Amino acid sequence: MVSGVLVRVQHGPGSDGEGLSGAEAEVVRMLRTWTGKWHLPGVALVNVNLPDRKTTRQVDALVFTPHGLLVVEVKGFTRAQPGKLVVPPNGPWTVDEAPAAIYHLTALNPGEQVKAGVYAAKKAFAEIDGGGAAFVTGLVVLVPIGKGLVLGDTGNAGVGIRVVLGTQRELRKAVHRHGRGRRPVWSASGVLDACEALALTHLAPGLEELLAEGFPEVVQAPTLERPVARPAPPAPPGAAPASRVLAPPAVPPASAPPGTAAPPARAPASASAASAPAPVPPMAESRPGTTRTRQSPPPRRAPSPPQRPAAQEPPPPPSPPRAAPPSPSTLPPLPQPTRPPVQEAPQHTPPVAQKAPRQVPERVIPWGLLVVIVIILAIGISAAVLVHQAFHGG
Questions:
Q1: Residue 31 pLDDT more than 70?
Q2: What is the rounded distance in angstroms from the CA atom of residue 214 to the CA atom of residue 211?
Q3: pLDDT tens readout for residues 46-72
Q4: Which fold has domain 6-213?
Q5: CB count in 10 Å sphere of residue 357
């Protein structure tokens, strides 16, 4: 049969028995009764002192578990006080807005006392391998006189500090939740080193007892491996990018009207062809009796301004022939100078811009309409003749 939590009590000087108060003795009794299926692995060092600066600080119990350390402060009451206990942000604890009748020897409230014990334990065990200052929390156990005390809001007791009533269920739940879901941080050798640091080797259990209690022989250090971000593989050439724009759903073509052929399906055009203007389809002219397709006239082009030909300079006048110099014996009379005829420059008239001939639309004789009109006239004349013969007997 598996025993309960390993409890080691340090006796006070000159005290009878274990030298514990009534509330502390009740908590020790409950720890020792967790056997069988109610067993929780742990070692409780009761009524010990922790080094605190240049002095020591007394704590009611240090409960070592493979998953952490609990600094326990046990408080009894001086009288029965039923009601709801509340922990205010400052000042003494209250029961129904009255100061709680908690037995204490200092001016500190239970939350401040256990908080100071947590800090002292972290400092004392910081250099211990296989434990140390990992997962050190505080626990306040209230052992009331009689029944009727319930807990209200105790969140102001401090960060990492729980307040429970001194019952089997609440105390065991607090110890069980302390180590639930955590990796082991205290080894068997680490607990022995903690007892040696406090000069409590005479209270320390044996190594075999700690291993049988559930403490591991060696504590595995936590691995802090982080996933390495790998770059994305390069996309193959011609592959579409990761973020693609979804194409709109295909819309079925509208049905063509009766009597006209549906246009042929077009292949998807490239990016350059998509930007070009679409060709203008031929205009369909529908008249009674005939269906004729007429090409739309080509767009008119603005007439280009006439180019004025360069002006031609008139040719220079011909120079008169020079005669041989006559001899002095035969000198003819001097000829009269003649002026060359003045040639007028030809007048050039700019060409008249010719207008493009206007294309007159071809007129189509509606033979079908004429045939229908003739038939209607023939039927009308025949009907008139029959009516006349019917009424006049001719």
A1: yes
A2: 5
A3: 999 999 888 999 999 999 999 999 999
A4: Trna Endonuclease; Chain: A, domain 1 (3.40.1350)
A5: 6
